[in-house]
Design brief:
The chain has two domains: 18-138 and 297-314, 3-Layer(aba) Sandwich (Rossmann fold), CATH 3.40.50; 143-292 and 326-344, Dihydrodipicolinate Reductase, domain 2 (2-Layer Sandwich), CATH 3.30.360.10. With 345 residues, it is an alpha/beta fold. It starts with 17 loop residues before the first strand and ends with a helix. Helices cover 35% and strands 26% of the residues. The protein has ten helices and 14 strands. Strand 4 (82-85), helix 4 and strand 5 (105-108) form a beta-alpha-beta unit. Helix 1 crosses helix 8 (295-309) and helix 5 (116-129) runs antiparallel to helix 9. The protein has an eight-stranded mixed sheet with strand order 8-9-10-7-11-12-13-14. The chain has a six-stranded parallel sheet with strand order 3-2-1-4-5-6, sandwiched between helices. It binds NADP nicotinamide-adenine-dinucleotide phosphate. Residues 24-28, 49-51, 54, 86-89, 91, 109-110, 136, 138, 177, 190 line the site of NADP nicotinamide-adenine-dinucleotide phosphate.
Length: 345
């Protein structure tokens, strides 16, 4: 990514906190309330909802000083430095661009863009404003996954031959935006990015070939998806995701001399089971413990450091484009749009 035009832009005076605002009051936001509160130098100042009473109730519940009844009103608050965007997928790029244009740094939920045209818009806004923008793939910040990538890079399982990743759950409500094609729903946009960016981080590059297969439900979105990726050197990856299957989330990396397993791979304590890495070589299995920590806090601390140091965040727009490019290719390979049209007839 290009570094901010003015590295000092949007930074508070030294020793003063970076003040955050949150757009949306959905399920994920309490984790960021927790993370910002625990972070080095962050302060949560404001929340915005489409509904003023909902914003006020949320602010009261989480002891947030300011509540706004529109997202525009929050962006106009001159005391804010950073905006966290936790809206349905189709609103991520539009509100990230508006936040940057209002002078705010951005942490936006995944997927930050649902097309390459949206990636172009984000990159243009980032160049125009010099703001720091990060995609909220928290699992890439977790010490478990950082350590696993380092071990694989050091040859702990030999030459990597296959990555297999799964992420699924049973969706609770049929009114969920994730089941709405108009809101860029679908399990690949919702869950596939975690699998793709882990596979790409392990391969260290983008795939050269993709295959995809989708089961599009009555909702009109892909509710089950399987994908295959071929990376240079014939490293292969198999991915599956769904929100019509029991909860599963794991990554298995198969090398010439061993198998490394991450289970859980994406939602660790305090939001899931304890972290840890398993490596099997022959009949021996080694368990490498990793201290539990809040990966959402790690993503907030990384953004603070990026703003303070004028450097890109860990999951910057270069990384986001890499993930988006592969997800778009998988959707095209699976003919998801044609299948949704057929399901609607
Ligand atoms: N990183 C993670 O661990 C993680 C986990 C879950 C979800 N996510 C991501 O976070 C984003 C939000 O997910 P969520 O589960 O929090 O969603 P959610 O519970 O459905 O909340 C979405 C929020 O967006 C606002 N909104 C604006 N326009 C909307 C519309 N037309 N329909 C519905 N809501 C609308 C609503 O807030 P107001 O009405 O108050 O404005 C709503 O509370 C998604 O992009 C998802 O991919 C990330």
């Amino acid at each position: 990514m290009t570094l901010p035009a003015d590295p000092a832009a949007g930074r508070p005076d030294p020793g003063r906190p970076l003040r955050w605002g949150i757009l949306g009051t959905g399920r994920i936001t309490p984790r960021l309330v927790r993370a910002i509160g625990a972070s080095e130098g962050g302060e949560l100042l404001a929340v915005a909802s489409r509904d003023e009473a909902r914003a006020r109730a949320y602010a009261d519940r989480h002891a947030i000083p300011r509540a706004y009844g529109s997202y525009e009103a929050l962006l106009a608050d001159p005391d804010l430095h950073v905006v966290y965007i936790a809206l349905p997928n189709h609103l991520h790029t539009p509100w990230s661009v508006r936040a940057m244009d209002a002078g705010r740094h951005v942490l936006c939920e995944k997927p930050i863009a649902v097309s390459l045209a949206e990636m172009d818009q984000l990159e243009a806004a980032q160049r125009r404003t010099g703001r720091v923008v990060a995609e909220a793939f928290m699992a890439l910040h977790h010490a478990q996954n950082r350590r696993a990538l380092a071990l694989i890079g050091e040859g702990a399982i030999g030459e990597v031959r296959l990555v297999r990743g799964s992420f699924s759950f049973d969706i609770e409500q049929e009114t969920d935006p994730r089941l709405d094609p108009a809101m860029a729903g679908g399990c690949l946009w919702d869950l596939g990015g975690y699998l793709v960016n882990m596979a790409q981080a392990i391969a260290g590059t983008a795939p050269v070939e993709v295959q995809g297969m989708a089961a599009v439900g009555a909702s009109g979105v892909d509710e089950r998806f399987t994908g295959q990726l071929r990376f240079p050197g014939d490293l292969l990856a198999q991915l599956d995701c769904s929100f019509r299957m029991p909860a599963r989330e794991q990554v298995e990396v198969v090398g010439s001399r061993g198998v490394l397993t991450l289970a859980p791979a994406f939602l660790m304590a305090p939001d899931g089971p304890s972290a840890g890495i398993r490596i099997r070589r022959g009949s021996t299995e080694e368990h490498i413990p990793v201290a539990d920590h809040d990966q959402y806090r790690a993503e907030v601390d990384d953004l603070h450091a990026a703003i303070g140091e004028g450097r890109p965040p860990l999951v910057d727009l270069v990384a986001a484009r890499g993930t988006c490019t592969t997800l778009v290719a998988l959707l095209e390979a699976a003919g998801v749009r044609a299948r949704a049209d057929a399901a609607a007839r």
